[in-house]
Amino acid sequence: MSPYADRLVACRRWLAEHPAGGIVLFPSRNLEYLTGFADEPSERALFLFLTADHDPVFFVPELAAEQIADRTPVDDIRTWSDAEGPADPLAALCSELGVDGSRLLVDETMWAQFTHLLESTLSKATFGLADELMTDLRIRKDDAEIAALRAAAEVADAAMTAVRGLGTEAVGMTEVELAARIEAELAAAGGAEPSFEPIVGSGLNGAMPHHTHGERVIEAGEPVVLDFGTRVDGYPSDQTRTVAFDGKPDDEFRTVHELVRRAQTAAIETIEPGVTAGDVDAAAREIIETAGYGERFIHRTGHGVGLDIHEEPTIVDGSDRLLEPNMVFSVEPGIYLPGKFGVRIEDLVVVTPDGCERLNTTPRKWQI
Ligand code: CO
Question: Is residue 120 packed enough to be buried (19+ CB in 10 Å), middle (13-18) or exposed (0-12)?
């Protein structure tokens, strides 16, 4: 059964209970979440209007109307043609919906040309961002979403196991070659497309958390940060291991790896409903700070994962967001030593009624 009709109802209920006159989405993860429409944005105006007291309305280019009718549960579809342009039909629709003068929430990823079109059409409206509403709807995953996230995590785990299995064979490969191998393993295990460019951070490249991959050759005995994921049924995985393919890294790496592993375990043991996101961050950070590496833990401890690879809840210092069952997020402390190496260990977890469950289960040790 499609979840979209219920989600649209929940969205309209939220609007009825909060000081916002409506929400206007364009092709985005929010629109995909509410309607199943997942196309990329284009230069032609395409909006979904939702208000508390009117059925959802799609405002679309004529050439997309049939597709929208086919793929979404929204029945009310208004079109504009290339010959007339969107401005006049949009003004007519907005006056019918009575949204001028109200506060409208727009997609935070909406292209400026479209917010500009809305602003010039609705001269008396004020604007906010859709995440005010959409985070509330999306932050707790339903059973089908958790099943997809679990399946995507299993594919990532299978690929990680295969990559670890390369052993000394990986020594002498370039990061680019290993990244290609990772993508092939993800696809072979059933992944649809990578969640993001795979990260293969060998040696000193591992000290840059968002280094993806380059021509550097993986050497014997050096740490390699492996961070990748794939999508299954639209939902991504995201996990990280830091390994040494020939098993002879130096003492400093062994010490730092053990520290990060302990920090990750401590953070995960903290997780249960009612704990704050900030508490989870603090649990990891305290261990790393006490050991003297606090300055080298240069990012938040984790991020929510759903249709977006980075969404709420953000697991960050000072956050007072309370964790609730069915929230899904990463726990990924790291230590980065410029010019030397980096270590990050990441698993996705789902909050349960009395704790959390890890969705990734491959070994966290650096040994192959
Ligand atoms: Co991540």
Answer: exposed
Bridge-partner residues for 281, per DSSP?
Answer: none
Amino acid in position 352 = T
Distance 80 CA to ligand 1 centre (A): 41
- Ligand 1 midpoint to CA 238 (Å): 5
CA of 240 to the centre of ligand 1 (A): 8
Cα(306) to centroid(ligand 1), Å: 12
Instruction: Give distance in angstroms: CA of 282 to centre of ligand 1.
Output: 18
- C-beta separation of 186 from 156 below 8 A: yes
Structure confidence at residue 112 (pLDDT): 97
User: How far does the centroid of ligand 1 lie from the alpha carbon of residue 210, in Å?
Assistant: 10
CA 217 – ligand 1 centroid, Å: 24
Could you say which residues of the chain have pLDDT below 70?
A: 1
| Residues that place a CB less than 5 A from ion ligand 1 | 238, 330
Distances (CA, A) of 23 to 16, 54, 56: 12, 12, 10
Question: Measured in angstroms, how far is the CA atom of residue 237 from the centroid of ligand 1?
Answer: 9
Q: pTM for the whole thing?
A: 0.95
CA 218–ligand 1 middle distance (angstroms): 23
348 neighbors 228 (Cβ within 8 angstroms): no
Instruction: Measure 359 CA to ligand 1 centroid, in angstroms.
Output: 13
Tokens of 213: 């991959």
pLDDT at 210: 86
